Amino acid sequence: MNEATERECFFCKSRFFSNTLCENGHFVCDLCHGLSAKGFIKSYTISSEGEDPVQIALTLMNDKRVKMHGPEHHFLVPAALLCSYFNLKHDTEKKKKAIAEAEKRSKNVLGGFCGFYGTCGAAMGVGIFISIVTGANPLSKTEWKLSNLATSKSLLSIALNGGPRCCKRNTLLAIIEAIKFVKENLDVEIKTNVDVKCMFSPQNSECIKGSCPFYER
After folding, report:
1. pTM of the prediction?
2. Is 205 within the bounds of a domain?
3. Per-residue pLDDT of the chain (217 residues; tens, 9 = 90+)
4. Number of domains composing the chain
5. To 5 degrees, how large is the angle CA 71–CA 98–CA 74?
6. Do residues 94 and 23 share a domain?
7. d(Cα 42, Cα 72) in Å, to the nearest integer?
8. Containing domain of residue 112, as a range?
């Protein structure tokens, strides 16, 4: 008989007694199993101690709740960036509040923004991130400039590498631009050690293949 032992949930880090593991040896609690995509993104980034936003994003996007395409990516971008930013600053309380605020703001960024409104939700996610960490508002000066500039730089990278839809590509491009922007403008060094090789191409019928910088040839 398999006896239940105390295990840590891979996502929320809470501890439970269980005798069930996934095929990779991970334990996932019932609460995390039942979360929606956005609920899962929020729970994971609040509890994660990760400092690499690209790795955080890949972990999130590899979960089956996060679909190939969808507006959950508009929350995923700022959540991954806020997670790494505040983990580097060792400020868990601010991270929790910031991610909750990003969730509220991202609800206004609807699916299909890239094609119907001319601005990708992943790039807007970078703007949300910068707006939150700088305290920007419609009347601020430097902070307003920085949040809009960050969005524009991310959007330019997405547009130049663009083609038919790919929320995974746009998410990664947006986060990579955000890493550079934060170092240049906020003097905070967020690092990534991930050499991204796309695992999502087989799921995407609109994949641009060799024209994508992450395509695994």
Report:
1. 0.86
2. yes
3. 366 788 888 777 778 777 666 656 667 776 676 578 999 999 999 999 999 999 999 999 999 999 999 999 999 999 999 999 999 999 999 999 999 999 999 999 999 999 999 999 999 999 999 999 999 999 999 999 999 999 999 999 999 998 788 999 999 999 999 999 999 999 999 999 999 999 999 999 999 999 999 998 7
4. 2
5. 10
6. no
7. 11
8. 36-211
